[in-house]
Amino acid sequence: MVRGGGEAVPPLARSTLDRAAHRRADPQWLAEAWERARVLVLDSADDGRALVRADASPPELVLVGPGELPGVPRSVPMFLGVEPDGVPVFAVDSPLPELPGTRAAHLREVGHLLVDRDAGIFTAALALTNWHAGHGYSPATGHPTRVDEAGWSRIDPDGGRVWPRTDPAMIVLVHDGAAGQDGGCLLGSNAAWPRSRGRRRYSCLAGFVEPGESAEAAVVREVREEVGVAVEEIAYAGSQSWPFPGSLMLGFLAVADPGSPVHVDPAEIAHARWFTRREIGATLAGRPVSVGDGEHLLLPPPSSIALFLIHRWLDGHC
């Protein structure tokens, strides 16, 4: 995805909202803002889907007025920020309203297709909704918590407060540093991923950053643990939220020797191999690339930062 200045960014790293954090503790302003707000309805009972216009290309996120909510929401209104035109935006967890010309869609499905404004609203709303779903009780006391600060914290009866957190994870496109169509990248097929219709998905290597560890150190460790390969020339490429349920993906590119033997950890990686730019380009163009056993290569979904990293390498931005 490309921002207005021409800078390539991961698809779920785009937004036009002013988060206006100073308004979160102003109940008078929030009450007035709610009356004139645009509201995104998310249905946590339906995997966090929201409404998009069924006939729009690209998809357009559907926001409603406060009086158009279907029944009693499961959550209090969560203040996401203020649009460039000055209109506040909230999100609520609720069954989706039945509106003609709309359909339910998941962020994974449409995130890369949405304009910057819609991608930012949907991503923030889903991340916040998922955090609330897992923090109904205080981790310190076990007491029930309630929503406070317009959705940006939870507080227990004793005044103990917790704030939304994301789990940092690294993801890396390992490549051989070679230019041209024969240059290669190392992708892995996760042991937990299902196969479907004669295709097997391969993606970048990834893992959570451990306590006391830098993101770069996590890159070295995870690649070594998952495929037994040493990397160098680690370069940061960008980050994006991955609210399934609550990660921040820190994207890197790194160089490895394609002659090094690949030894996968079978608990994590079912298979790993090097692919050339020619093979990746063919797959993106819809041409089958064999990965053995009668299966063809399937790349990561377009809303992921993994495919963003693959495109960066494919286009020579390493």
From TrEMBL:
Entry-linked InterPro entries: NAD-cap_RNA_hydrolase_NudC (IPR050241), NADH_PPase-like_N (IPR015375), NudC-like_C (IPR049734), NUDIX_hydrolase-like_dom_sf (IPR015797), NUDIX_hydrolase_CS (IPR020084), NUDIX_hydrolase_dom (IPR000086)
Protein's GO biological process: NAD+ catabolic process; NADP+ catabolic process
Keyword NAD: yes
UniProt enzyme class: hydrolase
The protein's Enzyme Commission number: 3.6.1.22
Catalytic activity, reaction form: a 5'-end NAD(+)-phospho-ribonucleoside in mRNA + H2O = a 5'-end phospho-adenosine-phospho-ribonucleoside in mRNA + beta-nicotinamide D-ribonucleotide + 2 H(+)
Pfam families for the chain: NUDIX (PF00293), NUDIX-like (PF09296)
Record-level Gene Ontology MF annotations: metal ion binding; NADH pyrophosphatase activity
Chain positions covered by the region annotation Disordered: 1-20
Keyword Cell inner membrane carried by entry: no
Cellular component annotations (GO), alphabetically ordered: cytosol
Every Nudix hydrolase domain range: 164-297
Cofactors demanded by this protein: Zn(2+); Mg(2+)
Xref: Gene3D superfamilies: 3.90.79.20, Nucleoside Triphosphate Pyrophosphohydrolase
Keywords: Hydrolase, Magnesium, Metal-binding, NAD
Protein family (similarity comment): Belongs to the Nudix hydrolase family. NudC subfamily.
Full protein name: NAD(+) diphosphatase
